[in-house]
Design a protein that fits this description.
Helix 3 packs across helix 4 and helix 5 crosses helix 6. The protein is globular, with a radius of gyration of 19 Å. It has 11 helices and 15 strands. Helix 2 links the parallel strand 4 and strand 5. The strands form 4 sheets. The protein has a 6-stranded parallel sheet with strand order 5-4-1-13-14-15, with helices on both faces. Strands 7-6-8-9-12 form a 5-stranded parallel sheet, sandwiched between helices. A two-stranded antiparallel ribbon has the order 2-3. It is of the alpha/beta class and 276 residues long.
Amino acid sequence: MPDKPRFKGIILDIDGVLKRGSTPIPGAPETVKKLRELGLKIIFLSNLSTKSREQYVDILRNRIGVDVSPDELVLATSATADYVAKHSKTKKVYFVGHKGLRDELEKAGLIIVDNPEEAEFLVAGSPFDEKGFVTEENKWKFTGAIRAILLAKARFVAVNPDKLFPGPDGKPIPGTGTFLGAITAATGVKPVIIGKPSEEIYRIALGKIGVSPSEVIMVGDQLETDIIPAKKLGLTTVLVLSGLTKREDLEKLDPEKKSMIDYVFEDVSGVLEIVR
């Protein structure tokens, strides 16, 4: 009898692996289709702090060409909402970010307050738009966030620590971590991070796949947030060069960090070489 396939599941980071901005990375939709045909269970993972699961389903289906259900998505927004709902007494949240994060917070039963001095939690996503500019809704929330922490003693929770991520043209634009740095500099308070590189979000993804970590591949475009936490949990790691990390960056890595990467491919289609 033929050997059973070594891998039964795969976790695919979205930005930098499947898409840049709202543009699909060439070959990505076809690769996802082939992975499904090979029988792998797929979980789509995103650290992006601006979208809800429903918004991501629409983006992946209609703009990227990848058919996906909400159950296959593990997002930092939904994981953050669940964490705050679990730990909050008053349910009152002052939030920084976009509608997708707000939707997930409200679906979790949390109350969004406009006055930062009423907040039990400050929940921070990205205040920037897809071009890297602070949105109109968020331009005063730098001050609000500082007041929530210093005056209301709100607990500081962040969707992700990503300082940068690839924009539509592949060039870096600021992410949530850029905002977090400003607030921490002003208050001296560091946030609890729920999304990558927190191992919690990977445990959620593994739970959805339902197999041993040794039978799962993680595909990402960043060493610190994608590769290292996955490797620590025992997953096989694939770094792709279609996002923020470039080949010249690999040459600068120290041997210990480089050893965390099992495979390097130009893009996600390379993963087919190790699953067939």
